[in-house]
Design a protein that fits this description.
The structure is a single chain. The chain contains 29 helices and 37 strands. The chain is an alpha+beta fold and 905 residues long. A 4-stranded parallel beta sheet has the order 2-1-26-27, covered by helices on one side. A 4-stranded antiparallel beta sheet has the order 6-5-9-19. Helix 20 crosses helix 21 (675-700). It binds one RNA strand of 89 nucleotides through helix 8, strand 11, strand 15, helix 12 and strand 33.
RNA sequence: GCCGGGGUGGCGGAAUUGGCAGACGCCCGGGACUUAAAAUCCCGUGCCCCGAAAGGGGCGUGCGGGUUCGAUCCCCGCCCCCGGCACCA
């Protein structure tokens, strides 16, 4: 601990009353103090409850943007608040440092990705420091450093041992521009999520993580996540896509020796009597088996070749025309025993279910379209509840309501029961079984890029695929590699890296040159923060037990599926390795909204930066032409509707930047940027500054007891709390009404701000309450205050104000804390507590309604009872006007809130 | 199409989930201070109507119904906006 009095020295020169609010100066001062005193360093302290507050770590792209400011301001409010509330708070920060842009920079500018990344991190860290965020930087994690990615490799090897990591040949999404494989999740509407290039199909040997092994658990786990936003849970559930149905064998009309039947998956076994044909996915190997030697073979092969060349997104677009070709083979519907034709259809997915379906055109839109195109029989087997369906159908009937018809012994059953009876029958007759299918696919982690974690596998001609022994980790990324941007990955071209010896037989061998998807890095970094310097394991289980799960995770909605699902998977996989005890990594999740701003466009110069617009006449500052004011959109470089946080901080300071980000909208909603709003936030801080400096000399005469500085407001609510334990001196004379009103305002504000932060992250209303508090304090005529009780009340108010402001605007709070005579940093001051007794109003103003409309208000002593209040209401002159000559039918009284007199006539 | 979230003054947003709609901020208007401006401080500000004024009345939370003494909030039926998923059998 620093010697007491040290802080006073820092602030001494700035505490004179005349001094104007100079954010740049005081922010630099306090950031230096925090760094020197290691104020935010945290160690495990079992005497206090823990709180793990985490914001999604950034990709070190070069500079922070307003989205970061918002994200980290939200997290910082919470971390500082919880610290002041007495929690042992873990609040770390790090860098998601592997990824494509570094490699692109290498190609375009000739900078090595490592150097580019390091520079960016260094710069962005100073930017974050200038925001005054309360991170424990001693726990900083950088995923591109061997100390981190070694453990990616270690985990990979453990997964490999357990069969959770495996390799298979598969058609992958290939981005021709990035020259890399993309996960399904990284393809958006057929385009690369990063560069928007149209994605094509390519066959490659790929590494996968068997996330599907946890599909069931990942889905059921969603039910436990009650503190996650509903829409994120919905998205996760959709993505996992569990469906219950049956698998059934449809025997071939002419069975092949080793292929007696085709297995299909359906959720609508109740419609099986309506299955009038079958469809196979074009990629299915069964297709070739069936057509071999048939006259249809040629046409089928042509069709398959044509379809499989088409890239997937195009082919699977929902509005895509249904196309197919008859194989010449037939199967037998196991229920009707009729022969049905087997087709190949472009809309059947090979990767889902069994890659083959029974087609029920009467009750499936796709099958109906297909059957209509090719003239296939449509048979109604579900009659709707009204009984109005007649053949020929004009459209498929897909509702799961009604009764089975044309379904043999099952006819007449309601749909739900038919499903069960038919499933029973299928199981009893041994032709199939109930099954659960997931939409979720295994996670392809192979990337043909340099700037990622090398996959620790060696290929030996004799021994085959050999994992790198644990002792040889990390497999280091070689520094000396070519960056051409052409052809194979740079790693594959680095002979010194590729050529190695087999760990088993010591013979010549080659290294795997694929690197891991960077989502691997971010799938467990939150565990690493708990013991960031652990050298023998990825995590120290004792430390992880102390801190996990993350109590509050904060980040963008764009990670609702990918990152969050992978992190949930990893947490379980690592749990099953015995390193972690929790199932779910993130107890509470807050997805903050986007930061948006109006866009400006000039017909000559295209998108304009806000600074390039002359706002007087809405003209382009370059050519003077009228500027088209576009809609409010997410801030983006391409649309140029951006505000650089650095400029903002230079002009107004970090406290203003933080305050505005928190005040302009509730965290989960989109925030519309407004220069005027920023001015408003700055003005407010100036108001606080002047207020405190005006009042500081007044209360300066009073003794500041450093052991209990905030205790005047902090201690009074402890378990044994009563008026007696309040350090505020009981005044000799009865307290003046001004004193009582002031203290009431103070304690009401403490309650409001505390509740708003704690309950629903209502930072905007918490700040509004602080503004009201300040407005109220400006109305107090402090100069007239002399009595000890009055001055105590002022001191209490000012201290509460500064303490309550701390999480939002920590620098100015520290400075004002010092200016009011305190010598210890605010960061660990106890959060103020309100005294419930002081909240009580002496008089109440109650609205009085007549027939539901407010006609008057009565002001009454707070302790009046129902009858007294009603009596006063009826006696009110204005109310009298409205009830004169009418019969009172009813009087509704809401406890201390409202009177409603119901009259008739 | 399915799922989720929304729709409140000129604007961003409040409202203890059935009890004074519009807190707080922005914008705008007025005043004080100033030689003047900026800054600052104070006051006003949903819309419409009556009134010279003090006051008073009506309307108002996307639209139409309903429940209730009373609805931004609950129910039914629509309209619109945003986000996600989308041939998953």
């Amino acid at each position: 601990m620093p010697a007491s009095g040290q802080y006073v020295r820092f602030a001494a020169g700035i505490s004179h009353m005349e001094r104007n609010y100079n954010p740049q100066e005081i922010e630099a001062t306090w950031q230096r103090v925090w760094a020197e005193q290691q104020t935010f360093r945290v160690t495990e302290d079992s005497s206090r409850p823990k709180f793990y507050c985490l914001e999604m770590f950034p990709y070190p792209s070069g500079r922070i943007h307003m989205g970061h400011v918002r994200n980290y301001a939200i997290g910082d409010v919470l971390a500082r608040f919880k610290t002041m509330r007495g929690y042992n708070v873990l609040h770390p920060m790090g860098w998601d440092a592997f990824g494509l842009p570094a490699e692109n920079a290498a190609i375009e500018q000739g900078v090595h990705p490592a150097q580019w990344t390091t520079q960016n991190i260094r710069y962005m860290r100073t930017q974050l420091e200038r925001l005054g965020l309360s991170y424990d930087w001693s726990r900083e994690v950088t995923t591109s450093e061997p100390e981190y990615y070694k453990w990616n490799q270690w985990l990979f090897l453990k997964f490999f041992e357990k069969g959770l990591a495996y390799k298979k040949r598969s058609a992958v999404n290939w981005c021709p521009s990035c020259e890399t494989v993309l996960a399904n999740e990284q393809v958006e509407e057929g385009r690369c999520w990063r560069c928007e290039t149209v994605v094509v199909q390519k066959e490659l040997e790929q590494w996968f993580f068997r996330i599907t092994a946890y599909a069931e658990e990942l889905l059921s786990g969603c039910d436990q996540l009650s503190a996650w936003p509903a829409r994120v849970l919905t998205m996760q559930r959709n993505w996992i896509g569990r469906s219950i149905g049956v698998e059934v064998d449809f025997p071939l009309a002419e069975p092949l020796p080793d292929l007696p039947a085709i297995r299909i998956f359906t959720t609508r076994q109740d419609t099986i009597f309506g299955a009038t044909f079958m469809s196979l996915a074009p990629e299915s190997p069964l297709v070739e088996r069936l057509v071999e030697g048939r006259p249809e073979a040629r046409a089928v092969r042509e069709f398959v070749a044509r379809v499989s060349r088409q890239e997937k997104a195009l082919r699977t677009a929902a509005d895509r025309e249904k196309e197919g070709v008859f194989t010449g083979a037939c199967a037998v519907n196991p229920f009707t025993l009729e022969p049905i034709p087997i087709w190949v259809a472009n809309f059947v997915l090979y990767e889902y279910g069994t890659g083959a379906i029974m087609a029920v055109p009467a009750h499936d839109q796709r099958d109906f379209e297909f059957a209509s195109t090719y003239g296939i029989l449509v048979r109604l087997v579900i009659q709707n509840p009204e009984g109005t369906l007649r053949e020929p159908l004009a459209a498929s009937y897909e509702e799961q309501a009604g009764t089975l018809v044309n379904s043999g012994q099952f006819s007449g059953l309601p749909v739900a029961e038919g499903k069960e009876r038919i499933a029973d029958f299928i199981e009893a007759s041994g032709i199939g079984a109930r099954t659960v299918n997931f939409r979720l696919r295994d996670w392809g982690i192979s990337r043909q890029r340099y700037w990622g974690t090398p996959i620790p596998i060696i290929y030996c001609q004799k021994c085959g695929m050999v994992p790198v022994p644990e002792a040889d980790l990390p497999v280091m990324l070689p520094m000396d590699v070519p960056f051409t941007g052409k052809g194979a990955s740079p790693l594959a071209q680095a002979e010194a890296f590729v050529k190695t010896t087999c760990p088993k037989c010591k013979g010549p061998a080659r290294r795997e040159t694929d690197t891991m998807d960077t989502f691997v890095d971010s799938s467990w970094y939150f565990l690493r923060y708990c013991s960031p310097h652990e050298t023998t394991r990825p995590v120290d289980p004792a430390k992880v037990d102390r801190w996990m799960a993350v109590d509050q995770y904060i980040g963008g909605i764009e990670h609702a599926v990918l990152h969050l699902l992978y992190a949930r998977f990893f947490t379980r996989a690592v749990r099953d390795l015995g390193l972690v005890k929790v199932d779910e990594p993130f107890t509470r999740l807050l997805t903050q909204g986007m930061v948006c701003m109006e866009t400006y466009r000039c017909e000559e110069h295209g998108w304009l930066l806000p600074a390039e617009v002359n706002k007087d006449g809405w003209r382009c500052s370059q050519c003077g032409k009228p500027v088209e004011r576009g809609r409010v959109e997410k801030m983006s470089k391409s649309k140029k509707n951006i505000v650089d946080p650095e400029h903002l901080i230079a002009k107004y300071g970090a406290d203003t930047a933080r305050l505005f980000s928190l005040f302009a909208a509730p965290p989960e909603k989109d925030l519309e940027w407004s220069d005027e709003g920023v001015e408003g936030a700055y003005r407010f801080l100036g108001r606080v500054w002047r207020l405190v400096h005006e009042l500081a000399p007044l209360i300066g005469r009073q003794q500041v007891s450093e052991s209990a500085p905030a205790a005047s407001v902090a201690a009074s609510q402890s378990a044994r709390g009563s008026a007696k334990t309040s350090p505020l001196k009981t005044p000799q004379a009865p307290p003046s009404s001004v004193t009582i009103a002031l203290r009431r305002l103070t304690h009401k504000t403490i309650k409001k701000v505390t509740d708003d932060i704690e309950q629903e992250f209502q930072f905007n209303t918490a700040i509004a309450a602080l503004m009201e508090f300040v407005n109220g304090l400006y109305k107090v005529d402090a100069k007239k205050m002399r009595a000890n009780a009055e001055l105590s009340a002022i001191r209490e108010a000012i201290e509460a104000l500064v303490l309550l402001l701390t999480p939002f605007a920590p620098h100015i709070a520290e400075e004002l804390w010092a200016a009011t005579g305190h010598a210890t940093t605010l960061a660990r001051q106890p959060w103020p507590r309100y005294e419930a007794a002081l909240l009580q109003e002496e008089v109440l103003t109650i609205p009085v309604q007549v027939n539901g409309k407010v006609r008057s208000k009565v002001t009454i002593p707070a302790d009046w009872d129902r009858d007294q209040i009603i009596e006063a209401s009826r006696a009110d002159a204005k109310v009298g006007e409205w009830i004169k000559g009418k019969t009172i039918k009813n009087v509704v009284y809401v406890e201390k809130r409202l009177v409603n007199i119901v009259v008739e006539g």
